[in-house]
Amino acid sequence: MNFETIIGLEVHVQLNTKTKIFCSCPTSFGEHPNKNVCPTCLGLPGALPVLNKEALKKAISFATAIKAEINQNSIFARKNYFYPDLPKAYQISQFDIPIVGKGSLDIEVNNIQKRIGITRAHLEEDAGKNIHDGAFSKIDLNRACTPLLEIVSEPDMRNSDEAIAYLKKLHSIVRFLGISDANMQEGSFRCDANVSIRPVGDYALYTRVEIKNLNSFRFIQKAIEYEVQRQIQAWEYGNYAEEVYQETRLFDTAKGITKSMRGKEESADYRYFPDPDLLPVFIPDSLLQEASNIPEMPDEKQIRYIKEYGLKEYDAHVLTSNLEMVHYFEEMLTENITPQGAVRWLTSELLGKFKGEVNIENSPVKAKTLARLVQYVENGTITGKSGKELLDIIFNNPQNTDIDAIIQQYGLKQVNDDSAILEIIANVLAHNEDKVQEYRNGKEKLFGFFVGQVMKMAKGVNPTKVNELLKQKLTM
Ligand code: ZN
Ligand code: MN
User: Fold this and answer.
1) Contact 20/27 with Cβ under 8 angstroms?
2) Distance of alpha carbon 11 from alpha carbon 394, whole angstroms
3) Positive or negative, the Cα torsion across 155, 160, 161, 167?
4) Cα 86 to ligand 1 centroid, rounded to whole Å
5) What is the pTM of this model?
6) Cβ contacts of residue 72 below 8 Å, gap of 6+?
7) Relative to the alpha carbon of 94, which ligand is closest?
8) Which ligand is nearest to the CA of 151?
9) For 355-382, how does the pLDDT look when each residue is reduced to its tens digit (9 = 90+)?
C-alpha cells in the first residue's frame, strides 16, 4: 500500500523587542538566572500586565509579509495549565481572535512551486526554563513573559522536504523583516510538527502525532521521516490503532527516534478564557499603516534582481536565500562594478571555497574586498586568471586585506599599456641580438622564444598584445 504524509507546522518565533511582552524587564539572553524578572513576570498577586506595542507592530509586519488578514480588534486569553516554569499557572496567549488571520507562503521544492496556507499567527508570552541538575530541578524565569509569535500552518505539506522548505522560507521572512534573530540554537525559532499518514487516494485525516521543540532543520527532517516510518509500519503490521494515538512526542537526537512524552491536550483541556487583566486590543489605522511598511521580502527581491540586473533565476534564488547573502551582494554593488561580475565572483568563485564552518556570515573575504577584486578584473587591471589567484591568496590570508600590495607583491598586474610592453620587448631584443638576426634570416620558430621571454619579464601581461607588438618589432 502507498501512503501519503500530512504535515502541519507550528512555529514559535521569539520577537526581538528590547523588553518583555507584558512588563518592562529586558529580554537579553544569557543573563544570570532570575535577573530579568519583576512582579508581573513572576506572576505575583496584584501585578498587572501591559501589552508591549513593539510586539504588536512586529506581528502586523509579519501579517503584511504573508499577505494575511489582520484583526484590528483582537483579545488575549488565558491558557491554563500547571507546570513549574509557569508561575501564574496560565499562559497569556490568544485563542478566539488572534491578531494575524489567514495568509499563505509560497515554497519551491524540485522546481515545483506550492502555496502553503497559514491558518493564523498569535502573540503570546513564553514560559521560563526548568534546569534539571542531578537531584535538583531549578527554575530560571528570565525567559518568562518574552514575546512569541506562534505561526500555525494548514496541514498542507506532503513530505519532509516541503516542511523544511516552508520552515526555511519562514525563517528568512522573519529575518528579512528584522522582527527576530531567529537563532535556532538559542531557541528563538522553534518548531512543533504535526504528522499523520493516510493511504494514497483516501481524503480523511487520520490521527496526528505532535513532535515538539525541534530546533534544527536537520533534526526536524529526521524526526518527521522517522515518525512517518513508525506510523506506516504500525499500519502495515495491523497495530495502527494501538501504536498511533494523539500524543506529544520528543525527538531523541542521539538515537534518531521519536519517543512518547505525554498525551496531547485538546483545547478544552486548557480552559481558555479572555484575560480580564488585559483590555481588548484595538489597532488604529495609523498604527496599521506604520507597521505594514515593511522591507523588501525575498520573493520580491528575487524578481527585482532578475528584472533590474538581468540575473538568471537560479542566481537570483541563491542570492536571496538568506539575509547575509543579500547584505553581501548589495554591499558589493555599492562599488562601481557590474551586477553580473558581482554574481559570478560571489556565487561561482567565493561560495565554491566555503567548507565546514565557513559561510557567507564569517567569510574571510569581505564584500568590499571582493568588489575591489571584481573592479580590477573589469577594468583590466588584472586578468580573470590573476583574479582567481588573488582570491586564493586573500581567502587563505584573511588578515591581509591590502589587495593592491598583494597585486604588486605577486606581480599580478596586467600590462595593457603599449609603451610598457614595448619597453620590455626592446629589452628582450637587445639582450638577444644573435637570435633576432637568426629570426630575420628566416628561423621563424624562434618567435615562441621571444614571446616566452617577454611573458617571463612581465607576469600578467596581455598575451595577444605581446604577439601583436612583437611581430611589429621583429619585422621592422
Ligand atoms: Zn518582568
Ligand atoms: Mn504556543
Assistant:
1) yes
2) 41
3) positive
4) 13
5) 0.84
6) 282, 283, 284, 288
7) 2
8) 2
9) 999 999 999 999 999 999 999 999 888 8
